[in-house]
Amino acid sequence: MATAPYGVRLLVGAATMAVEETIRLPKTILMYPMTLASTAAHVVMRFQQNLAELVIKGDATLEQIFPPKDEQPEWATFDEDLADIGADGEEPSRAEGRFALYSSPDVADGPRPAAKPFNKSVSAPAVVDELDYEQLTLAQLRARLQSLDVDELEALLSYEEATKGRAPFQTLLANRITRATAK
Asked: Left (φ > 0), alpha (ψ -120 to 50) or beta: where does 110 sit?
């Protein structure tokens, strides 16, 4: 078979493609709204990204020209500014408050003020040394309570009351003693 001239082949190919697209049109026309919506969303998001890049560059340039002042407005107050000074003249540590339950005094930034002074002269029961009780957080103690009997729990409670007197620890131990004796 002889080959047709280039122009004829081009026209026949274009006509064939037009016929094929016309046949596919009912299927593809259903997809056009979704295609248009996704294209529009892509254009809008790209525009927003470009806009954000320009704003960031503008901020960087303005900071170089006009360095920011590190001043605090007189009406603004922060918790750090209102830290109460203890009776001994030291500021309270950051381990106070709700996070004091989960940290030991060694983890805190400094000495932890207590509701009452530590009484180091109390002899520690054997269970204190077995558990390394002094270093346990509240969560660690809670995990180990299941393995202790009532006598050990009472010994820990009396030791806690005589030394550190931490209310969450006392409550945890007292509740566990109540549950263990109820069984």
From this structure: beta
CA distance 101 to 96: 8
Q: How far apart are CA 121 and CA 118, in angstroms?
A: 9
Burial of 159 (0-12, 13-18, 19+ CB in 10 A): buried
- Please state the φ and ψ torsions of residue 112, each to the nearest 5 degrees: -90, 125
Tens digits of residue pLDDT in 10-66: 999 999 999 999 999 888 888 888 999 999 999 999 999 999 999 999 999 999 998
Rounded to a whole number of angstroms, the distance between the first and last alpha carbons of the chain is 100
| Rg of the chain in Å (alpha carbons) | 37
Alpha helices in 66-149 (DSSP H): 126-131, 138-144
Helix, strand, or coil (residue 145): helix
Q: CA dihedral in degrees (101, 178, 153, 118; nearest 10)? A: 40
Helix orientation angle between 150-162 and 167-182, rounded to the nearest 10 degrees = 160
